[in-house]
Automatic annotation (TrEMBL):
Main subcellular location: membrane
Family indicated by similarity: Belongs to the complex I subunit 3 family.
Subcellular location: Cell membrane; Membrane
Keyword terms, alphabetized: Cell membrane, Membrane, NAD, Quinone, Translocase, Transmembrane, Transmembrane helix, Transport
Role this protein plays: NDH-1 shuttles electrons from NADH, via FMN and iron-sulfur (Fe-S) centers, to quinones in the respiratory chain.
Membrane topology note: Multi-pass membrane protein
Record organism: Yinghuangia aomiensis
Protein name according to UniProt: NADH-quinone oxidoreductase subunit
EC number: 7.1.1.-
Amino acid sequence: MMAAVSVWEPALVLLGVAVAGVAAVYGMNTLLSAQRSPLASPAFSGGVPPREHALSRFHVRWYAVTMIFLAFDMEMLFMYPWVRTVREVGTPAVVEMFLFLGILFAAVVYAWREGALRWA
């Protein structure tokens, strides 16, 4: 007679194997890695010593530029598959894309009005 297997048993076994695998990889890293000492010289880029720390903060105006870049990046992410399917879907796909582009245009107008595109 076969024992009843719970629905969760295979998932728990897989979770245990994954945790054991991660622990084994970290253990092997600890055992086999070379012991490192701090560098005697600072970081060097293109023959010029660094002016500031590598983890220094960026000016706040770069965050607005980044958000605008991401908006246009997402636009391209959605436009590539849209180009492939617009012929089959027809007019509703065109209306949806113009609605999407209108929302992005409104966001750019808002950013422009708030001064996100002004550098001085």
